[in-house]
Amino acid sequence: MRTLPVTKPRASEGSPQLPQPVAIPLTRAAIFLVVTAKPGAGNRGSIRSFCADLGALVRSVGFRELEGSLSCVLGFGSEAWDRLFGHPRPAELHKFHEIRAGERHAVSTPGDMLFHIRAQRMDLCFELATRIMARLGPAISPVDEVHGFRFFDSRDLIGFVDGTENPKAQEALDVTLVADEDPTFTAGSYVIVQKYLHNLANWNKLPTEKQEQIVGRTKLTDVELDDSVKPTYAHNALTKIVEDGKEIKILRDNMPFGHAGQGEFGTYFIGYSRSPGTIEQMLQNMFVGKPPGNYDRLLDFSRAVTGNLFFVPSATFLENIQDDKP
Questions:
Q1: Which of 8, 91, 229, 235 is most buried as measured by Cβ atoms within 10 A of its Cβ?
Q2: Where in the sequence numbering do the catalytic residues fall?
């Protein structure tokens, strides 16, 4: 695998790597755009050139509405990283691990690049996504596009508040950004995405008390159930990862989405972490169970239809990518 040219990282010159806008406050709207990169030197060159210009493109669209808080995070899948950048590569980057357990299936689906576009207004997200697609043109093929919205008081479509325990401020940076464990890629992050579709008709037939046991929180007040009454299969019990007595958190920015006329209701899960292993363990607990068989009962009403793992390099890395010349 040949190494493609990237200018000398600024960190080696005494200044820190600057992260992409991973750990930012929640927004009202988002577009999740997953694409594949077409083969060929010309397409590779187009994508590499685009990477260096992404920051300027976001600024040009965002300047039209400064209070819109427009941002974009760009991540790369394992195979795409090898084709676009070669070595070195992020230490824990790999293809999303498929999980099968009975009728529960965490699928692994195609995806070379993820664009996580966020703003307070959907028109800003849409404009940026349009410009991204126009700029990349024939170099990529879209495989999935989801338009997410903030639903009332940050609830998902099953009626519960989502993201209550998200870390904030410095803690959010600490749990999402790579540091000394992979010094070549400091300020980078790993992100896993899954698109879940809900059977709301069946879910809404459940008594509220049963829904609360499955989620692990009260529905109206968003208070976590006491461990004395919370089932071990509760969603928030299985997704709590503890190592050496300390909880290892991730940063979620999930969004509801759907098409009412088609009866489609879903949640787009997106989790950022310093290591993909944390989210992978959460998914193992959910789909297989902890212990095996004690699985997340939400999966009786929700199914994953996509699954990808990406590495989000630092903004400094993207800005310093050189044109791919022979």
A1: 235
A2: 162
